[in-house]
Amino acid sequence: MVGTVLYPKANQKACKSFKDVEISFRTQPGDMPIFVLADRGGKEDVEKLSLIKVAAIFEDSVKTGASFLDLNGKLMDKIEWLPLSLGKLSNVTEVNFSENGIMALPTTIGNLKPLPTNL
C-alpha cells in the first residue's frame, strides 16, 4: 500500500474528532491515501471519568440510542456506584463495568433490557 503517513501535532491520541480540532485529512479523487498515526497510549494514559462525566455519558447514550456501554477501567478510583440514570439506557444490550471499584449497581438497572450475565 502506498500513501502519506501523518502524525498530527494536535489531538495526537485521537480522543476527539479531528473536526473538533479543525484538522482535515480528506483527499481528492486520485490522490494517494493518508494514514494517520495516533498515539493511543497504554491504559495508564486513559482519562479517568468522574461521576458527573459518567452521568453525561449515560445521557448522551440515551440520546444516541447506543447499544453498547464500555466503562472498562475508565472510572476514577473513588467511584463505587453508578448514577440512577443508568436505568434510562433502554437501548443498551451490552455493558462492560469491569476493572472499576463499583461496589453496587443502582436499582434502576432493572429498567434495562435483559443483559448478559458477565457484568
Q: What does this protein look like?
A:
With 119 residues, the chain is low in regular secondary structure. It starts with a strand and ends in a 23-residue tail after the last strand. It has one helix at 51-64, and strands at 4-6, 34-36, 68-70, 94-96. It has one helix and four strands.
Q: What kind of sheet is the major sheet?
A: 2 strands, parallel
- Percent of residues in helices comes to 10-25%
Helical run tally: 1
Helix-strand string: EEHEE
What's the overall average pLDDT, rounded? 77
* Secondary structural class: little secondary structure
- The overall strand count is 4
Organism: Forsythia ovata
Protein name: Plant intracellular ras group-related LRR 4 isoform 1
Topology, element by element:
Layout: E1 4-6, E2 34-36, H1 51-64, E3 68-70, E4 94-96
Parallel strand pairs: 1-2, 3-4
What characteristics describe this protein?
Plant intracellular ras group-related LRR 4 isoform 1, little secondary structure, two-stranded parallel ribbon, 10% strand, 4 strands, LRR_dom_sf, 119 residues, 1 helix, elongated
Brief account:
The chain is low in regular secondary structure and 119 residues long. It has 1 helix and 4 strands; from the N terminus they run E-E-H-E-E. The longest helix is centred in the middle third of the chain and has 14 residues, at 51-64.
